[in-house]
């Protein structure tokens, strides 16, 4: 079995001198020492061989590794050439264990029952603004606090959420956090499930969703 290496991609792409748009998806996990995951190698190749390239998007699956290895990989994509000249932004998706360009491959959903690595986030504004479906398990208090109280982005973080799903007991504190971090005027679809009846916080939340078009409530 042959493992894909950077020089193999170079051989394929180096003949396409007038290429303007490039998307690469590599689903087989790569070792972190594979140069395909190196922003330095891509910079050297692209700025000399594909000088007309306008858009470069990729999704590279990575073998399980340590957090410091992910930091190292992300740092190779933080040069002025990547961030200022080309304006190509790279993130690590901890849930899928992939290296991606954003916003093209950024997730449009957020579920706090899944794993996210906020400490590794390079472009929080892009991450939050790309989310249009937000699902929150209200029983996972630590995850809610990390999600809504994280200092990475000034409020309001979730400006483009059109579908919101809440499961559990909605306290006044959590309601305040949601109201301060989610543009409730954008919400069109709202789902709420709980073992506890209607609360004042729930009523106030609904009243602030001025463009709501569908509502699903379940008590069990």
Structural descriptors:
elongated, alpha/beta, 220 residues, 4-stranded mixed β-sheet, 9 strands, 8 helices, 5-stranded parallel β-sheet
Rounded radius of gyration (Å): 21 Å
Q: Based on CA inertia axes, which overall geometry fits?
A: elongated
Strand % is 15-25%
Helix/strand structural class: alpha/beta
- Total strands: the figure is 9
Pick out the low-confidence regions: none
- Main pleated sheet: 5 strands, parallel
Work out the oligomeric state of the chains in this entry. Answer: single chain
Helical coverage, percent range? 25-40%
N-to-C SSE string, H for helix and E for strand: HEHEHHEEEHEHEHEHE
Overall number of structural domains: 2
Strand order of the largest sheet: 5-6-7-8-9
What is the first-to-last residue Cα distance?
A: 52 Å
Figure out the total of helices.
8
Mean pLDDT: 90
Give an account of the 3D structure.
The protein is an alpha/beta fold and 220 residues long. It has helices spanning 6-13, 39-49, 67-75, 80-85, 124-130, 141-149, 172-181, 200-207; strands at 21-30, 55-62, 89-93, 98-102, 109-111, 133-137, 163-167, 189-194, 214-219. A five-stranded parallel β-sheet has the order 5-6-7-8-9, with no helix packed on it. Strands 1-2-4-3 form a four-stranded mixed β-sheet, with no helix packed on it. α5 (124-130) links the parallel β5 (109-111) and β6. The longest helix has 11 residues, at 39-49. The chain is elongated.
Write the layout of secondary structure elements.
Elements: H1 6-13, E1 21-30, H2 39-49, E2 55-62, H3 67-75, H4 80-85, E3 89-93, E4 98-102, E5 109-111, H5 124-130, E6 133-137, H6 141-149, E7 163-167, H7 172-181, E8 189-194, H8 200-207, E9 214-219
Parallel strand pairs: 1-2, 5-6, 6-7, 7-8, 8-9
Antiparallel strand pairs: 2-4, 3-4
């Amino acid at each position: 079995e042959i493992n894909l290496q950077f020089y193999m991609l170079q051989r394929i792409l180096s003949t396409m001198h007038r290429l303007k748009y490039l998307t690469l998806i590599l689903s087989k996990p790569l070792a972190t020492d594979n140069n395909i995951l190196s922003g330095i190698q891509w910079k050297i190749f692209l700025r000399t061989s594909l000088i007309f390239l306008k858009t470069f998007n990729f999704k590279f699956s990575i073998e399980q590794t340590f957090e410091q290895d992910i930091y190292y990989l992300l740092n190779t994509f933080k040069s002025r050439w990547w961030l200022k000249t080309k304006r190509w932004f790279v993130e690590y998706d901890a849930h899928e264990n992939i290296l991606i360009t954003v916003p093209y491959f950024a997730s449009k959903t957020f579920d706090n029952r899944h794993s996210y690595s906020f400490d590794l986030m390079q472009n929080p504004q892009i991450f939050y603004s790309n989310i249009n479906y937000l699902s929150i398990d209200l029983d996972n208090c630590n995850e809610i606090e990390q999600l809504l109280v994280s200092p990475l982005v000034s409020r309001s973080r979730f400006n483009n959420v059109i579908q919101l799903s809440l499961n559990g007991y909605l306290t006044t504190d959590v309601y305040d956090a949601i109201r301060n971090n989610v543009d409730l005027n954008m919400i069109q679809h709202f789902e709420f499930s709980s073992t506890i009846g209607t609360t004042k916080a729930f009523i106030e939340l609904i009243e602030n969703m001025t463009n709501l078009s569908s509502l699903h409530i379940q008590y069990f």
